[in-house]
Specification:
Length: 70
Amino acid sequence: APRIRALQAATDYAELYRFAHALKGAAGGLAACELQQAAMRLENAARECAEQRGDSAAVADAIEQLLPSL
């Protein structure tokens, strides 16, 4: 969680996307479906921000949904 928060604070959406992508893959390998879905939501939101500098609120929402799964 500290790494996710640090990337969010730095608005490093490209790195946050990569982190979420790796987390999604690891969760899938462990059959942690809830975590995998939450990581996928964060991955998608971070990618959109990285590509378009879109709405950071979507990233914040995805993080809040992800953290309880960790």
